[in-house]
Structures are given as C-alpha cells and as structure tokens.
Automatic annotation (TrEMBL):
It holds the Pfam family Aldolase. Belongs to the KHG/KDPG aldolase family. This is Bifunctional 2-keto-4-hydroxyglutarate aldolase/2-keto-3-deoxy-6-phosphogluconate aldolase. Homotrimer. It comes from Planococcus lenghuensis. GO terms for molecular function: lyase activity.
C-alpha cells in the first residue's frame, strides 16, 4: 500500500480508534467492536501485552491497522513487520522517522508546540498528532494553520462525543478516540463498544 493511499484513508476515516487492551483478546474484541460500529482505522498500542498476536489475528479484517505508543525505532520496525500501516508516538523521535520513511509508512508523532511540529515536518511527518489534545482548545488548530497552513493535525486525548464535531470543524483532519471505548466495553461489553463507535461515526459526518 502506497503512503499517500494510507494517508488518504486516515483523513477520510475521520475517526481513529486507539485500542489499549489489558490482554490480546481484549484488544481484538475492542477492535472488532469498533469496526462493527463503522470505525475502519485503528491504532493498536504497544502498551497491550503480546501485541503481535493482535496484529496477526486481525490481519485479514477490512481495517487499516497502525501502531501506537511507539517509543523507539526497534518497536517501529517490529510494528511495521507485524503489519502496521502507520506509526504513532506520544512524542517526536528522530530515530523513528527514518525507519518509517524507509518502509514508506506514515509517522504521526505527538507534538504540542510549533517548534516540535516544524521539526516533525522536516523529518517527513505528514500528519501531526496533537497530544494531549485536552490541554488545548480546538481553536489552536487555526492558530497553527495561520503561520503553517500546510500542517495537518489529528488531536488525540480528551476527544469525546461532545467535542468531536468542534475539533473537526476547527480543522482537524481526523481525531483519535480511545478511553471512551474502553469504558463502554468494561461497562457493557462488546455491543456497548459497537454502539459507541456508531455514535462517533455519526458525529464525524454531521
């Protein structure tokens, strides 16, 4: 899959489910619930035990799978070889960027400042993860796009059903959601996570 195709899928999807499972089985269930609810792009975090099993189990699903909580180049390469189509970090790492570029995989680093964003752009990042987004107002995106109109931002952390539309209307190319899914799954199981995923997708297109 070509890099520009992956980026198009990410921006078309609008909603990226950030899956943190207490076990591989939970991560697989959560991912399938998100997909059943209409979310087709999923970030599987490396905080999940035996995450390679999750990639393997979902290999034939119609889902764009990426890897999150990637802290070093070794993990990035492991994720890419496991099947990740994009790599996400909570911070920008100069050693991760070349690995992703080498394999033609988008790298979405977490950034909070203009300086960090410009540096990430210079190393080839096409989408910047604003993280944690709950430290900012949605209007921050327009402020960034003033001097840097070409920066594409995906806020993650603190996105919920009440503010997702505001973030998207303010210029976010997509949003990352996660903790809500885990809470829904813990409280009501698989179908509760499916229903919440449906609600997020409905909000993303209104």
């Amino acid at each position: 899959m070509l890099k520009h195709s992956i980026l198009s899928q990410l921006t078309d999807a609008k909603v990226v489910a950030v899956i943190r499972g207490a076990s591989p089985e939970e991560a697989i269930e959560l991912t399938k619930a998100a997909a059943k609810g209409g979310i087709r792009t999923v970030e599987l975090t490396y905080t999940t035990p035996s995450i390679h099993k999750v990639f393997g189990a979902l290999d034939h699903e119609d889902i764009l799978l990426g890897a999150g909580s990637v802290l070093d180049p070794e993990t990035a390469r492991h994720a890419i070889l496991a099947g990740a189509k994009f790599i996400v970090s909570p911070h920008f790492n100069e050693q991760i960027a070349p690995v992703c570029n080498r394999y033609g995989i988008p790298y979405l680093p977490g950034c909070m400042t203009i300086r960090e964003m410009v540096k990430a752009l210079e190393w080839g990042s096409d989408i910047i993860k604003l993280f944690p987004a709950n430290s900012f107002e949605p209007s921050f995106i327009k402020s960034v796009n003033g001097p840097l109109p070409h920066v594409r931002i995906m806020p993650t952390g603190g996105i919920n059903l009440d503010n997702i539309q505001t973030w998207l209307a303010s210029g976010a190319v997509a949003v990352g959601i996660g903790s809500d899914l885990n809470k829904a799954y813990a409280a009501g199981g698989f179908e509760a996570a499916v229903e919440l995923s449906r609600q997020y997708m409905q909000k993303s297109v209104q």
